[in-house]
Amino acid sequence: MEIFLADYLGFCYGVKRAIKIARANADGKCCTLGPIIHNPQMVEKLSAEGVGTADDLSEINEGTVIIRSHGVGPKTYEKIKAKGLRLVDATCPHVKRAQTAARDLVKEGYDVVIVGEKNHPEVKSIFEWAGNHTTIVETVEEAEKFAPCQKLGIVSQTTVASEQFKSVVLKLLDKSADIKILRTICTATEQRQKAAIELAAKVDVMLVLGGKNSANTTKLAKLCEKKCKTFHIETADEISEKWLNDAQKIGITAGASTPDWIIKEVENKLRECR
Ligand code: SF4
């Protein structure tokens, strides 16, 4: 049995950075606003190291608030300040760029479209930075219904697929005579998806590692399923030897929120099964 790792897998730059920042502030009195990443094992590990998680600012009355890589809107910064809490900002610089782009477009008089998922925390944060005259557009159908306007500015959720962005933008092109497009996509998600599809096409079984609550890991699993037998697992303990019967080549990939140690444990367990 041969084991292959996808060319790009696991933590992206923004997640690595956020975890490093959280660890540097771990003192038992700091909390991330929302789970720092969608990986229960990592959240638990950080909690043991002194970085807690609060779902809402109302739960934090002292110490440090860490803003996670998805970012938050300006009102949250104000509320943290008003509560007298220490603020540590781990917003990914790519997300900051999208927030700033949307805000500046509105200042310049553009109606803004954010291409992305309405309920994603990052998109909500970009929306809040933009303020007025902003619409979130998720699908081509929604883009078709968008009302024409004088000046149209377009930005994207950082993790939106290039193809989705292109097809939505194409539909928006005839909505205004003055259009400014800022393609605020980060390459991490696409790199992982492309590498996973390539590997899944070469192996008999794919193991996709990451939180069951992680949208990007679930998407990786769905893409791999189209190419070969695929299992989405969170830890090495979930591996069943039955899955590996008759498999000559096993591929491993992991979402952008999956820590290295989980990848290593899975690799080691597979080597033991050989
Ligand atoms: S996926 Fe990209 S934008 Fe999102 S946290 Fe990672 S590096 Fe930053």
Report on this structure.
- Strand 8 (151-156), helix 7 and strand 9 (178-181) form a beta-alpha-beta unit.
- Strands 1-12-10-11 form a four-stranded parallel β-sheet, with helices on both faces. A four-stranded parallel β-sheet has the order 3-2-4-5.
- The protein contains eleven helices and twelve strands.
- It is α/β, with parallel strands linked by helices and 274 residues long.
- The protein has helices at 13-24, 40-49, 74-82, 93-107, 121-130, 140-145, 162-172, 187-200, 215-225, 241-244, 260-273; strands at residues 2-5, 30-33, 51-54, 64-67, 86-89, 111-115, 134-137, 151-156, 178-181, 205-209, 229-233, 249-254.
- Iron/sulfur cluster is lined by residues 12-15, 69, 92, 94-95, 158-159, 186, 188-189, 256.
Keywords:
12 strands, binds iron/sulfur cluster, 20% strand, four-stranded parallel sheet, alpha/beta, 274 residues
| Number of distinct beta strands | 12
Strand content: 15-25%
CA-atom Rg in angstroms: 21 Å
- Please tally the helical runs, counting DSSP H or I stretches of 4 or more residues: 11
Extract low-pLDDT stretches: none
Question: Major beta sheet, specifics?
Answer: 4 strands, parallel
Strands across the major sheet, in which order? 1-12-10-11
**First-to-last CA distance:** 6 Å
Q: Which molecules are bound besides the chains?
A: iron/sulfur cluster
Overall mean confidence score, pLDDT: 95
The H/E string reads EHEHEEHEHEHEHEHEHEHEHEH
Helix content: 40-55%
Q: Structural class of the helix and strand makeup?
A: alpha/beta
Shape: flat
